[in-house]
Specification:
Elements (H helix, E strand, L loop, with lengths): L3 H16 L3 E2 H8 L3 H13 L3 E2 L6 E4 L2 H12 L4 H14 L2 E8 L2 E8 L14 E3 L4 H7 L4 H10 L13 H14 L2 E4 L6 E10 L2 E10 H4 L3 H16 L3 H5 L14
Antiparallel strand pairs: 1-3, 2-3, 4-5, 4-9, 5-6, 7-8, 8-9
């Protein structure tokens, strides 16, 4: 269940991120359809806490740098490992498809870092995007590296909604997919969460943290290059994390041969 007040604060922050200029109380209230009194209370609270200020003398509001300072402090405490960020950039250069790093968050995988393809028709994603763990290549790659008890709990709580033609609809389907993917050496989804889009992913474990790295795009492009992308991903893992990384660190994932010059 969403907490309305918290959702309103986040909606307001996204509003300013898209608008990129100050807004009056009336403009905010009209945009969201909020009562003026509730809007006033929210804006006044954020002003009092130092998160909004009035850059003009006409009662118009805009976020202060306090948001950025807090975000930087949080990120600095547990950043995405540099080697993983380098690996992500490498994959986008080689595939020219959208790629991201994700980590588990409850029943979802949340995107921590995203680089979009330069193609006009591409998978569009942003940092903070969430996808169901059980229904995607990203999520299943993450699940595969969690302790068995945690895997069982996550799958037991999963809501099996039909998102697309490739969505797994039972615990057994997810478990079978994970076994097959580990044996194959990579995870794949086709119209599993977003129709006509596909992705290929691998799990990554660094310093006890579980991630997934995924490359995705329109299925008509990605579907023809699955094997190529899989070998590129394994080559990138070897290049940025060590030649024996998959065999030593990723539980159950079959290493793929890395040809010289592949990466």
């Amino acid at each position: 269940m969403l907490v309305k007040q918290a959702a309103n604060v986040l909606d307001l922050l996204e509003f300013f991120a898209e608008r990129r200029k100050a807004a009056s109380l009336a403009e905010v209230a009209q945009h969201f359809g909020w009562p003026r009194s509730s809007t006033f209370n929210l804006l006044s609270t954020l002003v009092a806490r130092g998160f909004l200020y009035e850059p003009e003398a006409r009662g118009r509001f805009y976020p202060t740098p306090r948001w950025l300072m807090l975000a930087q402090e949080v990120t600095a405490a547990e950043p995405v490992p540099e080697a993983l960020s380098n690996l992500l950039r490498h994959l986008v250069e080689k595939t020219d498809e959208t790629a991201w790093i994700a980590a588990p968050s409850g029943q979802y995988a949340v995107f921590l870092e995203v680089i979009e393809s330069s193609a006009s028709l591409r998978y569009t994603a942003k940092v903070g995007t969430r996808v169901p763990l059980h229904a995607t290549a990203t999520g299943q790659a993450i699940i595969s590296q969690l302790p068995p008890a945690q895997q069982a709990t996550l799958l037991r709580k999963a809501v099996f909604t039909r998102y697309g033609t490739g969505t797994p609809m039972s615990i057994e389907e997810v478990q079978t997919s994970i076994r097959q993917s580990l044996n194959r050496g990579w995870f794949v989804s086709s119209s599993a969460f977003t129709p006509d889009l596909g992705g290929i992913g691998v799990p990554v474990v660094l310093d006890g943290r579980v991630f997934a790295v995924t490359v995705a795009g329109p299925w008509y492009r990605v579907g023809e290059r699955l094997d190529e992308f899989a070998h590129l991903m394994h080559a990138a893992l070897a290049l940025h994390l060590g030649p024996d990384y998959v065999a030593k660190e990723i539980r159950g994932l079959r290493p793929l041969p890395v040809a010289g010059g592949t990466a």
